[in-house]
Structure to design on (208 residues):
């Protein structure tokens, strides 16, 4: 299966994911993926050409394996908006070997647990990252993403356009963390604060 689209999404930091899940259920959202562990491998050339061009080449494995390309994000959009081309692959390790044979290498790996819901025409993800809990709302346009956030009782002003790896890089630089990969094991015992890098909770303004 292949898809080519303009990905538009907003990210929200969540303190109480169980309450947000209850709100989704109350609104009649359909759970399309139960909580699932996810492994992501980010590829680049040895000289970092993709990163320098704000492009992403990612191999992901959860309930299936997918190879994804993302173009640069639109700096003028109120949400994260970027071209996304994705294809399902039958074997993660074989696909990794092909990419490495072509000269790409894994620049960073990252883990998360994700549950996914369909709420009308938007997709809502509940993500457990090694550094905290988040929700991503992906939809056809900013207006409908904003409307879904309001339905869920999330503060629109605290949304983020940053990727999880961008947040990871900011945390490492700010708090002098030295782990190379974004894994749950690497964050055990680490001292850091998402508040201090401007990622404020989105679910504390409204009663959800």
């Amino acid at each position: 299966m292949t898809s080519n689209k303009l990905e538009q999404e907003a990210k929200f930091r969540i303190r109480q994911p169980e309450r947000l899940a209850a709100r989704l259920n109350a609104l009649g959202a359909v759970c399309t993926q139960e909580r699932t562990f996810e492994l992501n491998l980010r590829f680049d050339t040895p000289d970092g050409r993709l990163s320098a061009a704000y492009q992403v080449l990612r191999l992901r494995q959860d309930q299936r394996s997918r190879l994804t390309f993302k173009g640069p994000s639109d700096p003028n959009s109120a949400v994260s908006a970027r071209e996304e081309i994705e294809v399902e692959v039958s074997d993660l390790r074989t696909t990794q070997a092909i990419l490495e044979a072509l000269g790409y290498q894994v620049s960073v790996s990252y883990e998360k647990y994700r549950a996914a819901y369909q709420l009308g025409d938007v997709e809502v993800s509940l993500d457990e990252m090694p550094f905290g809990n988040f929700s991503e709302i992906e939809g056809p346009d900013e207006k409908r993403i904003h409307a879904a956030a309001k339905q869920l009782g999330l503060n629109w002003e605290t949304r983020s356009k940053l990727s999880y790896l961008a947040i990871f890089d900011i945390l490492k630089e700010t708090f002098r963390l030295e782990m190379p990969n974004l894994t749950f094991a690497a964050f055990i015992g680490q001292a850091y604060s998402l508040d201090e890098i401007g990622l404020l909770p989105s679910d504390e303004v409204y009663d959800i």
Summary: The two ends are 36 Å apart (CA to CA). The helical segments are 17-26, 49-52, 92-101, 142-151, 164-175, 184-187.
